[in-house]
Amino acid sequence: MPERPVAVLAMQPWALPDLFPADLLEQLRTLVRLEPGPALTSFGTEEAVSVLREADVLVTGWGCPRIDSAVLATAPRLRAVIHSAGSVKGHVDPAVFAHGVTVSSAAQANAVPVAEYTVAAIVFAAKRVFARANWYAHDRTAGDWRSGAGTGLFDRTIGIIGASRTGRLVLDRLRPHNVRLLLADPFVTAREARALGAELVGTDELCRRSELVSVHAPALPETRHLLDARRLALLQDGATLINTARGSLVDTVALTHHCATGRIDAVLDVTDPNPLPPDHPLLRLPNVLVTPHLAGSQGRELRRLGEFTVAELARFAGGEPLHGTICSSDLHRIA
User: Fold this and answer.
1) Superfamily of segment(s) 111-290
2) Would you place residue 84 in the very low, low, confident or very high pLDDT band (cuts 50, 70, 90)?
3) What's the CA gap between 248 and 240, in Å, rounded?
4) What is the pLDDT confidence band of residue 270, given thresholds at 50, 70 and 90?
């Protein structure tokens, strides 16, 4: 029987119990020789240097230190980095790919709760739940919202910006809802968009035609303020913007203006800055819901990431292709 590969955990200790509860940890230990001791939070200590010397695979998570050339020099046997969370951009240096180390991420598993949050937000936004709930609680004399005139998801036009893992899951979950789906993504062809159930359009056209717009693009220099004052002005009166991607994709000043006038609504799980100052107007507007970056995996959902990681380690130990492989060419444009 071939010797089990040696695995080293590198993440913040708080993440371990939910990612790898006792049964998953036991499965992990049947697949790899897990280095004893706490998960590494630094690669510069004597203990870290000692365990990295024997490591075949790094199992990383939130708070993993950056893996650069200096770290790789202390880990001559390293063959894979398997990330039990979403983006690897913060801790995987390009040198990792240059050294021939395989990189995998549980980003697809982490996209599931983000997509669920997004679809729930779209359904609520179509009903104008946030403004109507505020009226119901505070000012029922200001108008009769009970009729729900013009509300509801049926026959709506929904625009998705970015065919990311989350964006594709959102499209998939919206298809049964009798809606029209638009997609803006420079890396997707019209044929690919049709296969996803959407019509490929430019971002300007998407903003003009959509009644609800959901953002799923990565934060890059070229996507900063992708939705700027000009594009936000293209949105229809009564439209809703939903952002579960990155706050920098939206011009906060311009968005605040449009929401403050009541012309559009917003659901924001990310903001710029993130978090917003406690006195920021977006936190007080009745037609805006701001949540504290909670759409991604939390609580019970973290186990899904652990299950994905264990399955990846099984494939790694068996010499099979990994399902969450990240290519070096993708590093610059992932979230």
Assistant:
1) NAD(P)-binding Rossmann-like Domain (3.40.50.720)
2) very high
3) 18
4) very high
